[in-house]
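Input for the complex:
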Amino acid sequence: MGILLFITVLLIAACGLIYELIAGTLASYLLGDSVLQFSTIIGCYLFAMGIGSALSRYIDRGLAYRFVWIELLLGVIGGFSSALLFLAFAYTQGFQLLMYALVVVIGVLVGLEIPLLMRIVRNRYHFRDVVAHVLTFDYLGALGVSLLFPILLVPYLGLVCSAMLFGIINVAVALWSTFLFANLIASVRTLRFLCFVVLCGLGIGLAQAKRITIAAEDNIYADEIIFARDTRYQHIVLTRFKDDIRLFLSSHLQFSSRDEYRYHEALIHPGLSAVPTPRHVLVLGGGDGLAVREILKYPQIESITLVDLDPEMTHLFSTHPMLTALNQKSFSSPKVHIINADAFPWVDSNTDSFDFIVIDFPDPTNYSLGKLYTTAFYKAAARHLSAQGLMVVQSTSPMFARDSYWCIAETLKQAGLQTYPYHVYVPSFGEWGFVIAAYREYQPPTSLPKGLRFVSVEGLPALFQFPPDMSPLHMPPNRLNDQVLVRAYDQDWKDISH
Amino acid sequence: MRLRTSRRKFLQSASAALVGLSIKGDRTITGSFVNDSFQVGHELRDRANFPQPKQVVKRAVVIVGGGIAGLSSAWRLHKKGFSDFVLLEMNDQAGGNSRWGENEITAYPWAAHYVPVPGSKAVYVRELFEELGVLKNGQWEERYLCFSPQERLFLYGKWQDGIEPAIGLTAADRDQFRRLEDHLQAFRATGKFTVPMEIGLSASTADLDRVSFADWLRSQQMDSRILNWYMNYCCRDDYGATTSNTSAWAGIQYFASREPEEKGPLTWPEGNGWIVRRLLERVGSFVHTNRMVHRISQRGKRFSVLSGDTEYQAEFVIFTAPTFLAPYLVEGMAPLHDFEYSPWLTANLTLEHFPDSYGTDPTWDNVFMESPTLGYVDATHQSLRSHVDRTVWTFYWALANGSPSENRQLLLNKDWNYWKEAILHDLERVHPDIRKSVSRLDIMRMGHAMARPKVGAIFSDERRNLAKSQGRILFANSDLSGFSIFEEAQYRGVYAADRVLRQVAGPLGGRHER
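Predicted:
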């Protein structure tokens, strides 16, 4: 029985410490100032343990029975402490009050545990052995859990689950004690039944821990983050605020579901509707499938080839229900062929020809992306144009990055193409610009697919008008060996933010 | 067994975690010396026993050496419809100082890695580049021009754009840079400093070949430490020598032979190896590698060129190997005195990811001020990909301080680990975490990497006589220009081929056209 008893000590010591660690971590995480949080929590907790120890002298009878009750209470309070605190932070003003109350209650209960236990077993061993062994295992348990907490529990289980798990351990100790001290307890059956009920409660809590965390975080962040992943190529974040889904790639907004139709209708239809008999379309970038959704509005199109660098991006927009609702499952169309490749080498080595080419890359924020906005790239891309073919290029904002916009237009011109610049207003972006480029003359289309919400035949000519504050500037073309665009883009945004 | 390893692994990482260490140890770096040619060089010098010839091959022309000069001779002969020739290369790969390597990440250079945009006088280079699609309708192909951002210099704990120091200059420094530029502009205007050098070479500039560049700078009251560092860097980069071991003529040639605002240079992932590849596509069938020539002797009107157990009998020999080797090979040739060479080492480092670089964008050429080395060049810089994670860096180190022979001994005597550590220490000053990125480091040692234009080398009678020699053995290595650059090698190779063609078209014309 000796070793079992001391393992009990080890476990209750671990449980006692874990609740304190969880409270400290939660407070640091939610309120900041970890030094203040940990100091006050440890202080309150140790003080409450002292109260518990002091109170232990008033317990005269039924030591084992009361010990089992203490474990049960600790299991319930401690086990749900983390979940309670999360929800309190999200939905009430009383987070700190609740936290310190919980810390004090748990502290008092933990303070009672060891004195009671020592008195229960005092007749079985020499006093000096009891003190030595109980305290040794007490401290061992503390060491074990303080190492487990940062290495395994927080990273793999999270705070809510860890608390539940240790609550279960407390109740297990209670249950076990009813066997260990069976001869000292009168109402063993009632206690065991209670233990069973509490275990069930904590088990359900453990299963629902994720939902509790999400429910709490929903209220903590203004926009709920519904997806976040670091891929090999970029940081993908999706947020949702009510019905507005936003995609950020490496912190740059790519679309807002409220107005992306303006962007994507304007990207596709002015060009594609002007191609007499479009059969084969190439999309470079556009891993969200939204441009493809617009292209699929032309039933005569036979194939759409989409080249996007990041397989996780195209996979996400092929499978996530919220996103496939947005792109109307465009990636599931049998016409669509997804190729995950770096665009420039792909364009260089592929020999197919296309009737419409969509170039929709992130803005030229660095030299790597800048390569995709050069005369060399546009020449390589334009080699894929069929005789009737047109190309459209996402070209940043002619309003906020006017130099950059006209630099891209000039680059297309220097690549030997005729250019037709136009712009639209997208509320979440502001004024946004595109350039249609081709080896032939372009005339705006006289008919469009049905059901468009933004682009109309009557409205088209206005898109090609540039008011004075966005009118053409003389800019040099962007070449691989000077990358003037990346510098211009950087300067454009600096000018705006200062 | 598996369980035990994984348990040990677990315990290791667990105990590391316990003592608060994240598992961030340096990578194991593998590598070795590669392309060593000391051995064969010494066999020649010591006149080792070579086999007796067992077979005879007759060709009108034998080209000795498969570097840029030799390949250019072959290119010229072939282009003129002449095919009765063979090119013998000592190493297992042609290319000489333009050799390249390739791994699963990228191709990379082993030495020469760029060609400045050639001026109007470099007609053979322009002709070649037009043929290779580098020059189209007067426009340089964008994808062969060095991508932006091109160069940076690390000084005073930070990076600056470009290699000419631009920060931390005093008024006196600026004044000296300005005066030097005025001088160079004047030299440029004389038209006597050209690429190739033979075209503009004039006795009126011979005085400049009698002083060292360092002394000349001093005589012009240019004592700025920063200016002298930069001049030293330039001489180490092109000549493998410091300014005090470089003729003032050569120092001035470096700047005055080119337009200051040219856009370039032209470069490829494998450096000038790209040009070698294109040349080999054209003349590769004439090139025989692993054929070290050990004897060249004249027998009446024919030359006997011995290589391994083969005797090549030829009417002409174009000797494009480094000229200092000629007296060891050519029967009856007097020893040479005016040819000196700089020892170099280059290293190719495989990087699993780009290291921290004080927050700046990586560039093509990366130089560190106050370092004895020349920094490194990134082989994936010319990649068209927009996402590059692994890369290869070529590290350059001309052993310019001290005597060349002592440095050659140092190259030979120190082991791979010594040089690896020296290189990583040098890189650590700009990339403190470099050891976490590097997985492989291969080193190529070159005892006689490039001709050194020491004082008197340019106008040396010995050099000029060999360069002009009218015999049936023609010398064409770039060292006959006094320094080793692509354009000089190509010019001399083509020029020698033209002279051979002129002679075979005479009395022997037609007989060798096949």
